[in-house]
């Protein structure tokens, strides 16, 4: 009995610590002139959101941010899926060494790498533009994508693939019909994780984008200390909303894929 | 299982990226940090004689260590108490939720609650208690930064430890109890052999990440002492790029420090685990 | 030694066991025998303190321990699997309870005692190995050593041989029985294998559906089962007009009056003899009877029953 109460207590504590602050942020964004030391606002309205949606700069950078995020996710899949598959079901020589190398971007400050790459990327003409930013976003995302996807492949027995091969399906078909559907949960998690990491980059975008590529975080920093707290709160909520938007995008593509599977 | 050659074919894009980006990036950063003249380590000598660098390094290590340690302790405690609840998806989603929030938004949440004009301060003001709200944001002790990191990283710790806790053989706890072990001994002998290596790994990931991260201290830190990445970013663009080699030398020092720590920690974990994991050889 | 009075365990609305009275004399090995799901493992866990009785009182060495936590009870439970700590060596596993647990000893003394015990169980040369390097039987022996080193008033064993293969099971259980006897350990042993119960114990208790059915020496229970459930589970023979006739009073004969007609289902070979499993349709029962003649599957035979009391005339 005592244990049950601890659990209820702890779970409500978790709610207040982790969910409530984000709800508070949203609440803050629909108030106006809620200043210290008022505990509750006097009025609720949507003025902050009107400000946000009337700013053409925010509109444009919203598009840039989502575009970069989605491309980063797709590139992550293209690079990390085969690699994770090889690490999980294959037997490459020096596996431990490879896995350590893959961890490097996590175990080394990415800022150091980005600073080192800055001049090279300028010379190659991929700095100060979206392509460069996309490439540099691969740095903090790839290790996590490989990790999540490898864990997904680890849960699938190689026998499944073998079995479908013995029936006579081609290798590609075996991948799309057998492996991929089983990998969907991991693919979904990896996608969200990568998207959120890409969304959270300020310093990499600032250095490699050179101020020419304005993603939302680059607009957010100057906003941060602005006097209009409701607007900053609304801007913050936007960041929480983008992964949800991405999730919807993702779920609909998964739905389409499943439709395609059933038609087979 | 398939051949080594085929594995490498599948790994090729990733390895290529790692060499071209990580390898080259580090190499360039290192070579640009070297001095062109006779004394090629001049930038490092200059760095090490600067008080700014040392106080930045000090504050960085302090913030990274305290944030990581507290996140781990809280995360471990939550995981231990709630891992049975987390089997269901709604609960997992609740744990995932803060992971969706970028670090700088988390920083803003902390400002909303903890700044001198924040909500907690307002609540405190309305209470009949005397006392002013302490300065927790842009404070020289970096408390706001630490709170932000704890808020963001505890869910990450929980998410990493959860699979471990869900796979622990809890009959071992009963064995321990039946033999008379209690409290901390049970934790140390039943849970820690499994949770320990993952905890070490998470410690490493978080410590290195916080050590090298710019986003939060740039918003909630102070100008002096600034955390190393903030200082490096400042130097990187200062005086028409003239301070660049110094900035890069500083980041290389940080990199070296991180890699050394990773190596020691991963090696120690591997060594202790290899002894008793299945197929291990005894040293007897 | 152990005295359990009117013990019951209920979980939500379900009764796991009830009205359990057990007494175990010092130095005895007592088996609780029953089919899976009869509540015997729950009973053992409650005695160990890993679960709580809903009703009843438990005394060990004349001290009431009903409310005492598992870690403080003078009993040790051995599980179905060895459950050695994988990160500790054999010696460290053996020492565990004397270092952290119920019988705290100085470092020197606990190492001496553990090494002595490992010698007794013939595991001394393995003392610095890790559990993953041992066979199942070796692991179970170390597990036993780890429990016995605590010198518990009562050792509880929950089907400790069920995870081993048949051959190893047979040799290890005799070894364990002899070892427990030699060390003078009082033990309560749970199993669903009647042969194991008979080999291991001085007395046995048959349990079914959460109730005690019969208690006695193995031979007594085998020859005179008190009810049909006990007979089905513990004995071999036939139920005739409310009485039970053990297989020793049955024989295969030609067709005579007072016999039952049966069909040979299949032969069994054991301990140098041949037995036949015979189905008796009119009684809706099957029985295993020894026979020296060679019989065919499907063959019609008659079963003669030696009436009770006439056995001495033979």
TrEMBL record, chain A:
User: Where is it localised?
Assistant: Cell inner membrane; Cell membrane
Biological processes, Gene Ontology terms: transmembrane transport
Keywords, in A-Z order? Cell inner membrane, Cell membrane, Membrane, Transmembrane, Transmembrane helix, Transport
Q: Does the keyword Iron-sulfur apply?
A: no
Q: Where is the ABC transmembrane type-1 domain?
A: 62-250
> What residue ranges are annotated as transmembrane?
57-80, 101-126, 132-153, 174-197, 203-223, 230-257
Kindly give the Pfam families that the UniProt entry links to this protein: BPD_transp_1
Q: Which Gene3D superfamilies match?
A: MetI-like
List cellular component terms (GO). Answer: plasma membrane
User: So which domain of life are we looking at?
Assistant: Bacteria
Q: Which InterPro entries match?
A: MetI-like, MetI-like_sf
What membrane topology does the UniProt entry give?
A: Multi-pass membrane protein
PANTHER family xrefs:
INNER MEMBRANE ABC TRANSPORTER PERMEASE PROTEIN YDCV (PTHR43357:SF4)
| Similarity comment text for this entry | Belongs to the binding-protein-dependent transport system permease family.
Record-given protein name: Putative spermidine/putrescine transport system permease protein
UniProtKB/TrEMBL annotation, chain B:
Family per UniProt?
Belongs to the binding-protein-dependent transport system permease family.
According to the entry, every stretch annotated as the ABC transmembrane type-1 domain falls at 53-265
Q: What is this protein called?
A: Putative spermidine/putrescine transport system permease protein
UniProt-listed Pfam families = BPD_transp_1
Major place of localization? membrane
| Statement: the UniProt record of this protein carries the keyword Cell membrane | yes
What subcellular compartments does it reside in? Cell inner membrane; Cell membrane
Which organism encodes this protein? Alkalicoccus daliensis
Gene3D superfamilies named among the record's database cross-references: MetI-like (1.10.3720.10)
Q: Which PROSITE patterns match?
A: ABC_TM1
Could you read off the lineage of the organism from its UniProt record? Bacteria, Bacillati, Bacillota, Bacilli, Bacillales
Please name the GO terms of the biological process aspect recorded for this protein, alphabetically. transmembrane transport
Report membrane topology.
Multi-pass membrane protein
Question: What keywords does the record list, in alphabetical order?
Answer: Cell inner membrane, Cell membrane, Membrane, Transmembrane, Transmembrane helix, Transport
GO cellular component terms given for this protein: plasma membrane
Any stretches that span the bilayer, and where are they? 55-79, 100-121, 202-226, 246-269
Automatic annotation (TrEMBL), chain C:
InterPro entries documented for this protein: AAA+_ATPase, ABC_SmlMolc_Importer, ABC_transporter-like_ATP-bd, ABC_transporter-like_CS, ABC_transpr_FbpC, P-loop_NTPase
- Locate the ABC transporter domain: which residues? 2-234
Reactions catalysed, as given in the entry:
a quaternary ammonium(out) + ATP + H2O = a quaternary ammonium(in) + ADP + phosphate + H(+)
Source species, domain of life? Bacteria
In the record, what terms sit under GO molecular function?
ABC-type ferric iron transporter activity; ABC-type quaternary ammonium compound transporting activity; ATP binding; ATP hydrolysis activity
The name of this protein is Carnitine transport ATP-binding protein OpuCA
| Any one of the GO CC terms | membrane
Assembly with partners or alone: The complex is composed of two ATP-binding proteins (OpuCA), two transmembrane proteins (OpuCB and OpuCD) and a solute-binding protein (OpuCC).
For this UniProt record, the keywords arranged alphabetically read as follows: ATP-binding, Cell membrane, Ion transport, Iron, Iron transport, Membrane, Nucleotide-binding, Transport
């Amino acid at each position: 009995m005592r244990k049950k109460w601890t659990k209820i207590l702890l779970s409500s504590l978790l709610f207040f610590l982790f969910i409530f602050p984000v709800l508070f942020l949203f609440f803050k964004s629909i108030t106006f002139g809620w200043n210290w030391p008022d505990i509750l606002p006097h009025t609720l309205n949507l003025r902050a959101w009107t400000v946000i949606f009337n700013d053409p700069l925010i509109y444009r950078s919203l598009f840039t941010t989502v575009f970069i995020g989605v491309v980063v996710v797709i590139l992550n899949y293209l690079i990390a899926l085969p690699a994770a598959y090889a690490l999980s079901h294959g037997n490459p020589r020096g596996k431990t060494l490879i896995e350590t190398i893959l961890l490097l971007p996590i175990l080394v400050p990415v800022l150091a790498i980005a600073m080192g790459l800055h001049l090279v990327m300028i010379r190659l003409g991929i700095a100060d533009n979206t392509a460069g930013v996309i490439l540099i976003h691969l740095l903090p995302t790839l290790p996590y994508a490989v990790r999540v996807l490898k864990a997904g492949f680890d849960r699938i027995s190689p026998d499944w693939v073998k079995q479908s091969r013995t029936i006579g399906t081609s290798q590609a078909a075996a991948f799309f019909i057998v492996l991929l559907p089983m990998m969907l949960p991991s693919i979904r998690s990896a996608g969200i994780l990568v998207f959120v990491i890409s969304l959270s980059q300020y310093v990499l975008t600032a250095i490699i984008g050179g101020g020419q590529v304005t993603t939302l975080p680059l607009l957010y920093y100057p906003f941060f200390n602005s006097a209009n707290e409701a607007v900053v709160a609304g801007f913050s909520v936007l960041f929480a909303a983008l992964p949800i938007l991405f999730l919807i995008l993702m779920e609909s593509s998964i739905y389409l894929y499943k439709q395609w599977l059933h038609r087979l | 299982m398939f051949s080594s050659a085929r594995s490498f074919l599948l790994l090729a894009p990733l390895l290529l990226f790692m060499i071209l980006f990580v390898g080259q990036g580090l190499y360039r950063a290192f070579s640009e940090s070297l001095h062109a003249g006779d004394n090629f380590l001049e930038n490092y000598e200059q760095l090490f004689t600067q008080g700014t660098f040392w106080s930045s390094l000090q504050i960085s290590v302090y913030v990274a260590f305290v944030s990581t340690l507290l996140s781990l302790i809280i995360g471990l405690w939550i995981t231990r108490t709630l891992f049975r609840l987390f089997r269901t998806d709604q609960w997992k989603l609740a744990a995932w939720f803060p992971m969706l929030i970028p670090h700088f938004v988390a920083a803003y949440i902390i400002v909303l609650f903890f700044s001198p004009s924040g909500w907690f301060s307002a609540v405190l003001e309305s209470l009949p208690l005397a006392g002013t709200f302490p300065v927790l944001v842009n404070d020289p002790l970096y408390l706001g930064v630490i709170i932000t990191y704890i808020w963001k990283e505890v869910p990450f710790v929980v998410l990493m430890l959860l699979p471990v806790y869900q796979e622990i053989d809890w009959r071992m706890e009963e064995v321990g109890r039946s033999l008379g072990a209690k409290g901390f001994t049970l934790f140390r002998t039943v849970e820690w052999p499994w949770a320990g290596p993952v905890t070490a790994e998470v410690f490493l990931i978080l410590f290195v990440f916080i050590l090298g991260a710019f986003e939060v201290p740039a918003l909630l830190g102070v100008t002096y002492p600034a955390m190393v990445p903030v200082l490096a970013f400042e130097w990187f663009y200062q005086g028409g790029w003239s301070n660049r080699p110094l900035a890069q030398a500083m980041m290389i020092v940080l990199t070296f420090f991180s890699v050394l720590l990773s190596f020691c920690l991963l090696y120690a974990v591997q060594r202790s685990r290899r002894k008793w994991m299945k197929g291990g050889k005894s040293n007897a | 030694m152990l005295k359990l009075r009117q013990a019951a365990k209920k979980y939500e609305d379900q009764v796991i066991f009830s009205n359990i009275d057990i007494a175990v004399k010092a130095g005895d090995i007592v088996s609780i025998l029953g089919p899976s799901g009869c509540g015997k493992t729950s009973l053992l866990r409650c005695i160990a303190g890993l679960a709580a009785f809903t009703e009843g009182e438990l005394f060990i060495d004349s001290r009431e321990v009903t409310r005492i936590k598992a870690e403080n009870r003078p009993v040790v439970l051995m599980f179905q699997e060895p459950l050695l700590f994988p990160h500790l060596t054999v010696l460290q596993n053996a020492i565990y309870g004397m270092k952290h647990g119920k019988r705290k000893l100085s470092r020197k003394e606990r190492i001496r005692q553990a090494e002595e015990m490992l010698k007794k169980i013939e595991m001394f040369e393995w003392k610095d190995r890790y559990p993953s390097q041992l066979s199942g039987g070796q692991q179970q022996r170390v597990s036993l050593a780890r429990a016995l080193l605590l010198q518990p008033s009562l050792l509880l064993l929950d089907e400790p041989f069920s995870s081993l293969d048949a051959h190893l099971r047979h040799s290890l259980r005799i070894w364990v029985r002899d070892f427990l006897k030699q060390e003078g350990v009082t033990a309560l042993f749970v199993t669903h294998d009647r042969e194991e119960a008979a080999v291991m114990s001085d007395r046995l208790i048959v349990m079914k559906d959460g109730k005690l059915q019969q208690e006695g020496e193995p031979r007594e229970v085998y020859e005179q089962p008190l009810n049909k459930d006990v007979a089905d589970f513990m004995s071999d023979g036939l139920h005739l007009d409310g009485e039970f006739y053990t297989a020793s009073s049955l024989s295969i004969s030609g067709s005579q009056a007072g016999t039952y007609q049966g069909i040979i289902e299949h032969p069994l070979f054991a301990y140098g003899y041949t037995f036949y499993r015979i189905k008796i349709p009119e009684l809706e029962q099957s029985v295993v009877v020894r026979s020296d003649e060679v019989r065919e599957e499907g063959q019609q035979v008659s079963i003669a029953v030696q009436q009770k009391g006439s056995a001495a005339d033979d």
